[in-house]
Structures are given as structure tokens and as C-alpha cells.
Amino acid sequence: MSRAPAQGHPAAQTRPAAQTRPAARPFRGFTLLEVMVALAILAMALVAAFDVVGGALRNHERTRHLELATMLARVTADMKPETRQRILYAALIIFAFRAVPAVGEGYRWFAIDKLGFDEAFFGVLGQIGSGLALVAMWLLSDSITRQPVARVLLFLTLAGAVLSLPDLSLVFGVHEWTERVFGFGARTIALADTAVKSPLDNLSMIPLLTLIAIYAPPAKRAIWFALMASFMNLALVTGQLMTRHLNEAFVIQRGNYDALPALYVTVLVLQLLIPLTAIIALGRRVR
Questions:
Q1: Number of domains in the chain
Q2: Which of 19, 161, 213, 254 is the most exposed place for a label (fewest CB within 10 A)?
Q3: What b/e sequence results for 199-225 when a residue is b if at least 16 CB atoms lie within 10 Å of its CB, and e otherwise?
Q4: CATH number for the domain that contains residue 121
Q5: pLDDT digit string (tens) for 144-192?
Q6: CA dist list (Å): 172 to 107, 114, 169, 181
């Protein structure tokens, strides 16, 4: 028989009872209601932040416009009233010519998906347009400076409307007929249209530079150029805003181009009417 452990033996000492630890509560995650409430709070906070930022940007734009108008009034303060009016009307006509909407990204998507254009071809079009624009400015600058601003911009407006017709024909699928009958398709039409139309926007800057060269005092020509450049930048921003609103009215989604013909026609009409209205209203006062 085995003997009981002796008194004082470690085995004979009473072992302490094992301490019981509380069981860890399993993580149950968030309920759908909690997630929805959190997202709603986050959305309200973001909307408030966007409103604050948007209001600050709008206030910044208004301040910028006011500063620009103040600077223009300052640099022309020592001129005769009739000269100041002539400069103002000429600048407004050029502003109207530049502040026109564009079609937007919808036409680019259409050219890629339906016409088969790719980034390399767009790069070729850009290089051709830039090169021909520089050549046209070099060849025609002297002739343009000898003409009234209204006459130059009237010609550029009408020419731009006529030269936009090839792109419009691509939207309506005319390139399929030309390829069957004449053997050339969308790429040939786009190349020819870019070659002819690309100089127009750059040529419209020559009357503006002429105004600076004629009326700006030599010591203030840099200031004049900076102010006129800012004025033209405002025209481009105005055109971009109109482009955005037109794209909201004529929604173009990738792969669905049903609204593209109506959008293109609307843009073409506005590109013609906005400059013509300014030329008819102010052109006689610039001569």
C-alpha cells in the first residue's frame, strides 16, 4: 500500500484553487442601423464642408473679378474717354468670342468607341494643330493687325462655324458614306478638319495683342498683358461653366451617345450666336 505523503511534503500542501477568469465577450460588430446612422452623419458633415469650401471659392472668384476690374480701370485712367471705350468694347468682343461652350468629353468618348480613334491619333491631331497654328500666326499676323477687331472676329466666327461641320458630320455617321463612295473615312475627315480649324483660336489673340501694342504705355505693357491674359482666362472659365451645364442638360454616358447630336448642334449654335451678338452690338464702336 502506498503511504500518505509526509507532513510538510510539497505534495501534501493544499493547492490553491484555480482562479476563474471572466469569459471574453465575443465582438458582435456593428448593426446595419448603426452603420447607416454613422454614414448619414458623415454625409451631412461632408455636405456642410463642401458648402463652406464652395462658398469660399465663389467669394474668391468675385473678389478676383472685382480686383481685375479695378486694375483695368486704373491702368486706363490716364486715357481719353473715347479711347477707354474703344478698348472696353474690343475686349468685350474678344471675351464673347472666347467665352463659348464646347461639347465636352462625350465627343471624345464617341471618337474612341465609335470612330476607332486612339490616344496616338489624338496626339497626332494635337501636334498638327499646334504646328499649323504657329505657322498661321506667323503668316497672317501682319494682315490681321491692319483690320478692325470686329471684322477679324466676325470672319473667325463664321469660319469656325463652317469648319465645325465636318466634326458634326462624323456624329451623324456621314463618314460611313464617304468611305463607301470616296474611299476615305473618319480619320481623314478629322485630320483635314484639324488642319484647317486649329489656327482660329490662336488668331483671335492677335487683336488683343494689337490693342496692347497700340494703346499701352511702354512702362505698363507688362501689366496690360497680365490683365488681358486674366480677362481671357475668365472667358475660358465662363465657357467651361456653359459646357458643364450643357452636359447636365444633354447627358452623355459612355456607350450611350443618343443625345450627342442634339448637344453638338446646340454647342455649334451658341458658338455662332454669342460672338455674333457681341459683334453686332459693339462692333461699330470699336472702329
A1: 1
A2: 19
A3: bbebbbbbbbebbbeebbeeebeeebe
A4: 1.20.1250.20
A5: 888 888 888 899 899 888 988 998 999 999 999 999 999 999 999 998 8
A6: 12, 11, 5, 16
